[in-house]
């Protein structure tokens, strides 16, 4: 496996970014300000992570996505570990927002993230169509954080 940092031509990764965030306009809000990390296995792109610096102590994972055919094989975990290790020298905390999907929430909680707050109606207010995961429409954004120290 190889993880590459991407700082140009980020829109070339739109297809996989859409796995993690279903609307191009939402991705465009953070894409240019983010650093992209792409995980390849035998030169095949499997996962991607977009990370944005929020302030001098905090980075935010804006998108962590794995192509469906590669999910549940440890790629996202590997990429998440890499990102946390990469930023722990300069930053104290990593945060992220996600929908109320138990599978996703459990993925992050198993890796040391804890719920900190909710933004009511985020998905219904900011997306042009209903976002449905595991048969449930996403409504609120749930923020999680993890200490890097």
Q: Your description of this structure?
A:
The structure is a single chain. The chain is α+β, with helices and mostly antiparallel strands and 149 residues long. The chain has a single domain, classed as Aminopeptidase (3-Layer(aba) Sandwich), CATH 3.40.630. It is 26% helix and 36% strand. The chain has 5 helices and 9 strands. The chain has helices spanning 14-20, 24-28, 75-87, 102-109, 122-126; strands at residues 2-6, 35-41, 44-53, 58-66, 93-98, 114-119, 132-133, 136-137, 141-147. The strands form 2 sheets. The protein has a 7-stranded mixed β-sheet, sandwiched between helices. Helix 3 (75-87) links the parallel strand 4 and strand 5 (93-98). The radius of gyration is 15 Å and the shape is globular.
Q: What is the topological layout?
A:
Blueprint: E1 2-6, H1 14-20, H2 24-28, E2 35-41, E3 44-53, E4 58-66, H3 75-87, E5 93-98, H4 102-109, E6 114-119, H5 122-126, E7 132-133, E8 136-137, E9 141-147
Parallel strand pairs: 4-5
Antiparallel strand pairs: 1-2, 2-3, 3-4, 5-9, 6-9, 7-8
Q: What's this model, at a glance?
A:
This protein has 5 helices and 9 strands.
